[in-house]
Amino acid sequence: KLATECVYRACVELVDPYGFERSKDFDYESYEELMSEYLVVLTRRSIKWSKLLKGKRKVQKNVKLKRYVRKGIPNEHRALIWMAASGAQDQLERNPGYYQSLLRAEHDPKLVETICTDLNRTFPDNVQFRKTSNPCLQKALYNVLLATGYHNPVVGYCQGMNFIAGYLLIITKDEEKSFWLMEALLGRILPDYYSPVMLGLKTDQETMMDHNVMWTLVVSRWFICLYIDILPVETVLRIWDCLFYEGSKILFRVALTLIHHNQALIQQAQSLPDVCQNFKQITHGPFVDECHTFMQKIFTEPGSLSMATLTKLRATIRSRIITEELGPTDPEN
């Protein structure tokens, strides 16, 4: 057994393709087995994507592209498709030089200090974020977060944004693209998720409760970090493929799939620690590791979940929260 493990360790790098170190208890044998199947899928999808794009730098949203996105974007095309699908590419082209102008602006010492505090805490297990790395992504991360804070002063910077910006940098390898993708997430895809009152997040928490999901404390963490450090990296990226294309309903689909699939285990919980432990358990193992099968499940297991239905439900809940928190006579903003 030990000899076999050593062989697999020799075949599989100690660091994954995105720069994350593998844990000491990493199951190399299971990973090798999983990847041997998934690589066949990746190769097939890569050929199809190459034929679809034919070297184009611009893409239009359509039914075929949506189908392709749901089946996974090859890593070499992710930045292009995320930028196009989210509207970030349009924003970048309409605002030439804007990102650089934000970095040249007079710095707010409080914002700088808050961001700097979190830099060393961002993916300590990723070699690309270490000061010894060349290039080190910490400087790029600092720039993206600083520019985001100046661009959106109502939000500024809050914890969790560093991990999202970090993932964007790992994939795009480009500061300006990462900034505009952050702008798309904070401004259009997940509005008010990271604002001081977190109205968007609270609305989605209660919307989940309307789907008979009572464990909103746990689920809100899933939503605020967009499943980073909750699910395996490859699975998170597959979720983000759909998030940038289809919007925030994808977060619901993932949460509902995890909960429905593990309902029996979750309902065994007798206390809050039990709930937390069981929720941790459902985000590990073959069901979430096999990202291709998992992504097929999120579009079948929760049933119909249209954006129109979600928008209507959110509007009702949002009004209720505003009335409860601000009072009926106060304006929404």
TrEMBL record:
Residues 72-247 form the Rab-GAP TBC domain. Keywords: GTPase activation. May act as a GTPase-activating protein for Rab family protein(s). It comes from the Eukaryota. One of its GO terms (molecular function) is GTPase activator activity. PROSITE patterns: TBC_RABGAP (PS50086). This is Growth hormone-regulated TBC protein 1. Pfam families: RabGAP-TBC. The gene is grtp1a. The keyword Cell division does not apply.
